[in-house]
Specification:
six-stranded parallel β-sheet
Length: about 170
């Protein structure tokens, strides 16, 4: 039985770039330690946009260009990039169907833990996508390894995930 850690969008633009926050900067050492010590498979997702970002629905609703493929902001932060052992899963939307396709390649999954950014957008979206395909696999969100757009929206997202039978730890 496999344990899987999914590291969501720990990219420069979300940490200290275009959409960075002090809370995002603060979780990097914790997430690094988790990746280094995790006994199981570690998967990384990478928010991916293109030059036409401002013309997309997301760009119209969040008019801050970020994670443009190939830019420094799109890269996974150096502290984590050096630990990455498999290709990152580029995702064009908040929740990734490609992540589910990667999980389907696993034999038996015991549990899946999530950390990353932003709790209230991409973490919760990916947790709910995975929950839809794997309702019987325990899903865990390590709150200490997540940060949201705001502290309040981070807390709201954790509460919403709890209501959907996701185990939230280290609050």
């Amino acid at each position: 039985m496999a344990k899987i850690l999914i590291v969501v969008d720990m990219q420069n633009d979300f940490i200290d770039g275009a959409l960075g926050t002090k809370e995002a900067v603060a979780i990097v050492p914790y997430v690094k330690e988790m990746v280094e010590n995790f006994e199981g498979k570690v998967l990384f997702t990478r928010d991916t946009h293109f030059e036409n970002y401002m013309e997309t629905q997301e760009g119209k609703n969040l008019p801050v260009p970020h994670c443009i493929k190939g830019t420094e902001g799109w890269q996974i932060c150096p502290a984590l990039e050096e630990l990455r052992k498999s290709e990152a899963i580029d995702k064009l939307t908040f929740g990734s169907k490609d992540l589910v396709d990667v999980l389907k390649q696993e034999e038996e999954i015991e549990e899946i833990t999530f950390v990353g950014l932003c709790t209230d957008i991409c973490v919760i979206s990916n947790v709910m996508v995975v929950k839809a395909f794997y309702p019987e696999i325990p899903l865990i969100v390590d709150a200490k390894g997540c940060a949201g757009v705001t502290v309040q929206s981070h807390l709201n997202a954790l509460e919403a995930m709890k209501m959907c039978q996701v185990k939230v730890v280290n609050e």
